[in-house]
Amino acid sequence: MEVELPQFDGLASGALVKLILQADSARRQLDGYLAAMLGRLGDLEGQEAVEELCRQFGLGRHGARRQAKTANALNALPNTLDAAKQGWISIDHARVMGESHQRAPLSTEQELELITAAITEDFDEFKKTLARSEGQRRADDGLTRHERQRERRSVKIFDGDDEMVVLHAEFDRMAGERVKTALYALSDRLFRADARAGGDRTHEQRNADALVALITQKPARSQMPATSGNDDETASKPGDAPSVCAESHDPEDEIAPQATTLVVTVEYDTLSGQLRNAGLIDGTPIDIDELRRIACDAGIVPAIFTADGQPLYMGRKQRAATAAQKLALRLRDKRCIGCGMRAGACDAHHIIWWDDDGPTDMPNLVLLCPKCHKKVHKHGYKIMQDVPGPHRLVWPSRPRVRSPSQGAEP
């Protein structure tokens, strides 16, 4: 399908605005049309197939999973999907309606009322309208508003652009207020420390540093003795973070390291006697100077994987992968070879099954998350490898059927 796009060079502002609105309408229609097609593919091949296809759009794992979930949710709301295909509402409006319908089913009348609201309300306003509607629909479920919010709590962490890590969290109102109070309290302390030391962090950067400190570190105890009087800088109050030493000139003195274990890989150049090519276990490179810095804050797990240094090749002596083999798999595969789930959530899988005399050796092991592990053992998915190249999980051409006496490998 080829779309001919009009030229806009030389257009006056009025004509340009009109063209922009037309392009936005066309984009909405295409978004709705794409969601309808993905929903149909999900009916035919399943959600995993939709996610895999969405990855070919250039989306990351999180984006592909979200688009597949949206298409699946809108399958149950044909009027909403039609409104998106007509360009009346955005795909974001449609997506949150689909999510709300999954939590509290909409009647056709309620769906049409919300579509009318979505046409006239921007996204932020519509989310509030949708929340009120969902609360009314769930009024007879025996749960309080707080309990409903608690059901929806979630935290997602995933890799973003430029090797950044994105954290998205949703809390019920009470938990959220506690998080905000703690975050803002430490952020304010960092602000005062910056003011004393001449730091130039932005508000968002201070919030980010405060969040990291709250999750991975602990506030440093003040070295300054308690004083009498109304000194707000040194007097402690219930619920406050530990007070900050007024003599400190380093904003980082606000927080102290907390034990964290990292697994890093570093090559040793025997000719120069120097370390080089440092990286995290997922392959992300880090500077040697950064390695030295984190070595002060984290426990470093050293490992040398050589034929005679670690029992990486166990043959038929042992079914379960050793700790050394699991570390080696994390270094080699980085993540689940099927869906990309982080390595820490994965198991070691025998390519040639143990029951079929497959050895517990590195060439015969790959990382699979529990979900993809089940695909192999229950649904006939295969492990393939392009030589040279990594292993990958492929759709089955013919499901493998095991006899009732054969159990699935854990």
Helix content: 40-55%
Q: If helices are DSSP runs of H or I spanning 4 or more residues, what is the number of helices?
A: 13
Proportion of residues in β-strands: 5-15%
The termini sit apart by: 46 Å
Task: Explain this structure.
This protein has 410 residues and is an alpha+beta fold. It is built from 13 helices and twelve strands. Strand 1 and strand 2 (165-170) form a beta hairpin. Helix 1 crosses helix 3, helix 1 (13-45) runs antiparallel to helix 4 (78-85) and helix 9 crosses helix 10 (203-216). The two termini are 46 Å apart. The model is unreliable at 222-254, 300-314 and 398-410 (pLDDT under 50).
Helix and strand topology:
Layout: H1 13-45, H2 47-55, H3 61-74, H4 78-85, H5 91-103, H6 108-120, H7 123-137, H8 145-151, E1 154-159, E2 165-170, H9 173-197, H10 203-216, E3 218-219, E4 255-256, E5 260-262, E6 264-269, E7 274-280, H11 288-297, E8 298-300, H12 323-333, E9 347-350, E10 365-368, H13 370-379, E11 382-385, E12 391-394
Parallel strand pairs: 5-8
Antiparallel strand pairs: 1-2, 3-4, 6-7, 9-10, 11-12
Helix pairs in contact: 1-2, 1-3, 1-4, 2-3, 3-5, 4-5, 5-7, 6-7, 9-10
